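Researcher: We're teaching a course module on how sequence relates to structure. For the next exercise, students receive a sequence and then see the predicted structure as tokens, so they can try to spot secondary structure elements on their own. Here is the exercise chain.
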Amino acid sequence: MFTITSISTGLTSLFFLLSGLRLYFSWRKQKTFLLKSFAIFLIFFGLQQLFFFLGTGPVSLDQTVNVWLWAIAHIFMFVGISYFLRFPLYIRFPRFEKLIFKIALLYSVVGMAIIFYNMSKVETILTESQVYIFKVPAMAGLTIGIFTTICLLFSFFIFLNEGRKVKDKRFRVRSFLIALGILVFFIGGPAHNFVTTPLLTFIVDFSLIVSALLIIIGIYIPVGDSKLSAEKEYVSAPISGPKIKW
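Model: And here is the predicted structure for the students to work with:
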């Protein structure tokens, strides 16, 4: 059965997967850290939305089946955001990028253990308007919320700050677009837990598509002789305040 939620998440999944593959093939031609980080993020988030699509009606309306698909979807969320975090870390704290990435993956393993442990407490509701809702226990919701909030807000402020520092307007626009895309994504993702009508469901999922568009447009803004050399400019940009010797 196709519900409003499954149709909406299915469209979002398709867009993110196609966008991620587009970046992946660009990365094959020009292997930059920027492309790799965002390609993995978009593909993995597309897979997360794919499992949300499968878990909101098309496969089954059985609660046990759909809660399993909901839980599996979060594996891709954790891994995707962990990879997404690498680029802003590479910009601002290159010495600690690999260490923090490993910590994020470790948190992901612990987070998934908590989610699987709490699966029996997750409830599903199909409203009269065909919106499929997951009622998540506090511990699982908190585990997901802490991770996404820290990672996405950190990334947002890094891109915002770097955009203020660079002199080239094209790099500045690139940073601000990516930062705005992250902010829209940060707002649109958690909003799924509060929508109960078809219109709001489509608006929330459309906001995720807008966030991906902003990020992709930012990445492909032509800069000098190369469209995709952002990390060189970011790393060479002066760091505000006194330099710290690690």
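Model: If you want an answer key for the exercise: The first strand starts at residue 123 and ends at 126. Helices lie at 4-29, 33-54, 63-92, 97-117, 138-165, 169-188, 198-219, 230-236.
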